[in-house]
Design a protein that fits this description.
The complex is a heterodimer. Chain A has 23 helices and 33 strands. By secondary structure, chain A is of the alpha+beta class. Chain B has a five-stranded parallel sheet with strand order 2-1-3-4-5, sandwiched between helices. The chains are: A alpha+beta, B alpha/beta.
């Protein structure tokens, strides 16, 4: 938000130079901004479409498409700066940062901040790659959500590169694709024996000293991996080392650092990367140094239970450190919370918690028996469960996707967050993995059934491999079903050889569970007696549905088996594709939604789309301010002071007349719809005011809609600031530019409607919404169906729709604008209703037939 | 009926990877190559029903692939894709009996339709 004194100052200077020539010039820049924004958005949707998986494209395409997009947004920004007298210099810096990130992806070059160590409060969005996914996400919890996170600092990938260069290890990275076991062991040995460059040690010493001064000299740290892309599309769950409870000294941190970095080259981690199609040797590792919480209890939260059910979240908990839960060492407590409007604890299962992991006195950790008296005691009270659930919901909302969160509670009962990452959701087609058949297939005895938890559903057959020791992982033959006492993330190296995994003990929130979901590997944990019941080499068929709904048959049940799974191959194939698609992360997502929000600032722009949104809003404001400064001065024969349009529907709209858009006798403050002489605005209003299109029936109206409605009403009475964040229509007799925001969605209409068809055009854009993305996409589909009827050229992607049409005669343009007016009213709150694709077609047909009922 | 097999040649891995993934979904067998040289080697050993090749590649380019295919396996269908939609090259390629010619980015569905047509499945 800009300070009030700034407004006053610019207001004064504006009055001094407040001529109609000034407004004319500003209008010219305004249109140029809109034009640049429109071009950028079109290129953006086109890129999104081409990179979306339906096209074969190469890097040349990505480069040239991005170059065109960058040119368009730069144009827009140049005109915007003229329009606003360079009021937002930060935008150019943001654009440069975004450009830097995209160029880095296009050219495969390294991050460039040059910082070796960063404390969490210093970590901003553009440093995400340099500090790795794990550090970045955790820092976000503290910085953006103000949630309790232990004191922490990150050692960047720049430090990693420096360390490798200093020790002459860069060439070994290049040889990694051909490295065998021996070479990997050699590389790990060289890392552990590595020396630290002086500047690295100095940066670390300063950070360690700062931490000691804040936490005292007895503080200890967890030193954790935070590789590039870790906790991104793929979790790398449990693939790298974490060193717990080490003293806060340079020597101890350095030793732990080397251990963590060396784990990048462990057999399992290399195998994981290979299966996902990574170019070996390219992944760099940042490291996080996080103050240890003296955890009384810890655990994991899945904000969508089982990776499927978004209406519930699941919290697991065990005594001591979280390692017991994520490594699947113990049977944990499991709490299920229904999300809805009010959080409700709906299920509570107290686990046996036979073992716990604790800090030993000075440094290091140990696993021990949980004292019997504690085993049956719930780790969390209902109040604590709900407190965690509430914060977890906020985290999910912030990252806009289900999360897998690690938490801890200290002896004083304070809750801390230690990690959050995207939770891999089950694909819809997997969900069809049929329910269990009611009858046992003939000739196949049931070996195991019902005890334990399905982690990944599916059907698989093979020979049992009874694992007694981790060394045996290398000997597992292809097509085995791995049966083990408890789970381990190290199983990943065997995944190419496995058809399924069954463990006696384990929890569905462990690292291994995450990985099995990533690879669609049918898995059941906590099955109790699998190792005792099954024989090594025995042929079996697993049918895992969900929850405890699973069964293991003796022999191969051919009738159940479907086509061979190709998931690993699919992921390999998609790696390069994903990498190209990542570019869109810096372009398409929209973070700035509500212009009345504190967060609606140049600093919060992270993507090209944010820049467009910000510039549009501020461009309208600048133009309105310019018009206001002129008061009732005349421009092109019009009266330029903004006036409120008195409408019988809940829409606040200010009209700025650029020339002959309003009747001469119109009021100075307020105008009636009948006094609108602008042909395009009159046509749109006729549509918006058509009886029936403005849904008055009780609909699930959101708090946000109500709130923003009130805010806008309040603005109008607030004097000079009134024009901030308004819906504004700029009109002349033939021209209309109008932005209409309802809650979280935004309509933009730009049209020219004259007697010369070749000059005429309609440009319509719609973006956003508050409902789930599927519902928002359906609203877009509905609008597209309607607009297509009139011959619009349309581009749609997610919740963004851009349509244009030109060269039509004036009556035709008017007719279409009236339909668009109806469409704006009709679709205002429709997303909440669009629960099925069929509804879209039904309502589109009705709308076109002049029937505006939305009740089904 | 045996599966139809398709050879895909493009010096960018992403093109072959994605083509392989989507063609395999339709039941084709797919082999991918990152340059013309290795593809020509393979063509000496094996006949493919369809060859989808990039036009501009270092060394052996798409036109050379086309000529070799027509010499070794006259029945094989060749489809050319290229980032440089150059009309002259297109005309030359058509004269040399290329089945279809697509500028990149090419919609996978269109490519599949062209392949099906060539194989008489449509």
């Amino acid at each position: 938000m800009t300070p009030a004194w700034w407004d006053k100052l610019t207001g004064l200077s504006g009055r001094r130079q407040g001529t109609s020539a000034d407004l004319a010039a500003r209008f010219h820049f305004f249109q140029a901004v809109l034009d640049g924004n429109n071009r950028t958005l079109e290129l953006m949707t086109e890129m999104g479409e081409k990179l979306g998986g339906d096209y074969l494209f190469d890097v040349n395409y990505t480069r040239s498409a991005y170059a065109a997009l960058f040119a368009a947004i730069s144009d827009s920004l140049r005109n915007f700066n003229q329009l606003t007298d360079d009021r937002y210099p930060e935008l150019a810096k943001t654009l440069n940062r975004i450009d830097g990130l995209v160029q880095r992806m296009l050219t495969n070059t390294e991050p460039a901040s040059g910082r070796l160590v960063l404390f969490y409060p210093e970590i901003t969005w553009d440093l995400a790659d340099e500090v790795g996914g794990k550090n970045y996400h955790l820092a976000e919890l503290a910085n953006a959500l103000h949630l309790p996170v232990p004191e922490s600092f990150a050692i960047t990938t720049t430090a990693f590169t420096l360390f490798f260069r200093h020790n002459g290890l860069e060439e070994r990275l290049a040889e990694l694709p051909r490295a065998d076991e021996g070479a990997l062991a050699g590389l790990r040995g060289a890392i552990l024996a590595g020396e630290f460059p002086e500047e690295f040690t100095a940066a670390l010493a300063a950070a360690v000293a700062t931490l000691r001064s804040r936490l005292g000299s007895t503080a200890t740290l967890a030193v954790r991996s935070s590789a590039e892309e870790e906790d991104g599309d793929f979790s790398f769950a449990g693939q790298f080392e974490t060193v717990l409870n080490i003293p806060c000294t340079v020597a101890a941190v350095q030793a732990a650092y080397k251990e963590v970095v060396a784990s990048l080259f462990q057999t399992n981690a290399i195998s994981y990367q290979r299966q996902l199609g990574y170019d070996l040797g390219r992944l760099k590792m940042a490291v996080g140094c996080v103050a240890m919480v003296a955890a009384q209890a810890s655990g994991v939260i899945f904000t969508a239970a089982g990776g499927r059910d978004r209406s519930r979240l699941a919290i697991s908990a065990a005594w001591g450190l979280g390692k017991a839960v994520v490594d699947g060492l113990t049977d944990a407590d499991l709490y299920t919370v229904a999300k809805g409007d009010e959080l409700r604890l709906v299920a509570r299962r107290i686990g046996a918690k036979a073992q716990m992991v604790v800090n030993t006195g000075a440094s290091g950790i140990e696993t021990k028996e949980t004292p019997p008296a504690q085993q049956q005691v719930a780790c969390l009270s209902e109040k604590e469960v709900l407190a965690l659930a509430q914060q977890a919901t906020a985290i999910e909302e912030h990252f806009k996707c289900p999360q897998d969160i690690e938490w801890a509670k200290d002896a004083a009962g304070r809750l801390f967050f230690l990690q959050t990452r995207p939770l891999r959701m089950e694909e819809p087609e997997e969900a069809t993995a049929s329910a269990l058949p009611p009858e046992t297939p003939t000739g196949h005895a049931v070996l195991l059934r019902g005890q334990g938890v399905v982690v990944q559903r599916g059907i698989a057959a093979g020979s049992v491999f009874l694992l007694r020791h981790l060394d045996e992982l290398e000997r597992i033959p292809k097509g085995s079903i791995l049966v083990a006492g408890h789970d381990s993330p190290l199983f990943v190296q065997a995944i190419p050889f496995l058809h399924a995994i069954i463990t006696d003990v384990g929890v569905p929130t462990s690292h291994m569970a995450s990985i099995c979901r990533e690879f669609n590997l049918p898995t059941v944990v906590n099955a109790g007696s699998a190792t005792a019941t099954l024989r090594h080499g025995q042929e079996v068929t697993l049918h895992a549905n969900e929850g405890s709904d699973w069964v293991l048959y003796e022999g191969i049940v051919h009738g159940l088996l479907r086509q061979e799974k190709q998931t690993a191959a699919k992921m390999r194939a998609l790696y390069e594709f994903r990498r190209q698609k990542y570019i869109m992360r810096h372009i398409a997502p929209l973070h700035l939604i509500n212009p009345l929000d504190q967060e609606f600032t140049p600093e919060k722009c992270q993507t090209i789309h944010d820049l467009i949104r910000f510039m549009h809003e501020k461009a309208v404001q600048a133009l309105v301010a310019s018009a206001e400064r002129q008061g009732r001065g005349r421009l092109f024969g019009g009266q330029t002071g903004p006036r409120k349009l008195a409408l019988p529907i809940p829409v606040e709209l200010l009209v700025i007349d650029l020339g002959d858009g309003l009747r001469k006798a119109a009021g100075k403050k307020e105008v009636e719809p009948a006094q609108v002489e602008s042909v395009p605005l009159a046509a749109v209003l006729a549509g918006m005011l058509t009886p029936g299109v403005w849904q008055q029936e009780a609909m699930a109206l959101r708090g946000a809609d109500l709130f923003s409605g009130m805010m806008r009403a309040a603005d109008l009475t607030a004097g000079n600031e009134a024009t901030l964040a308004h819906n504004v229509a700029l009109v002349s007799r033939d021209y209309l530019n109008m932005g209409l925001r309802f809650g979280y969605h935004f309509n933009m209409l730009d049209c020219y409607c004259s007697e010369t068809p070749r000059n005429n055009h309609i440009y319509f854009r719609f973006v956003g919404g508050a409902a789930a993305i599927t519902n928002r996409s359906r609203r877009i589909a509905l609008m597209a169906m309607v607009l297509a009827e009139y011959g619009f050229a349309l581009k749609a992607k997610g919740d963004l729709l851009v349509g244009r049409i030109s060269g039509l005669s004036r009556p035709e343009i008017e007719r279409i604008l009236t339909q668009i007016g109806r469409l704006i009213g009709f679709t205002r709150q429709l997303d909440a209703r669009l629960e099925a694709d069929e509804t879209v077609r039904l309502l589109a047909r009705r709308f076109l037939a002049g029937d505006y009922r939305v009740a089904l | 009926m045996a599966k139809h097999n398709i050879m895909v040649i493009d010096d960018e891995k992403i093109v072959g990877d994605m083509a392989k993934l989507s063609f395999e979904q339709d039941g084709y067998e797919v082999e991918t190559f990152l340059n013309g040289e290795s593809a020509l080697e393979r063509l000496k050993e094996k006949r493919f029903d369809v060859v989808v090749t990039d036009l501009k590649m270092k060394g052996v380019d798409g036109l050379e692939v086309l000529r070799t295919v027509k010499k070794l396996h006259p029945g094989t269908v060749v489809i050319m894709i290229t980032a440089f939609a150059n009309l002259d090259v297109a005309i030359e390629a058509l004269r040399d009996d290329v089945h279809d010619f697509f500028p990149k980015p090419v919609k996978i569905k269109e490519l599949k339709t062209s392949i099906k047509k060539a194989l008489g499945d449509l």
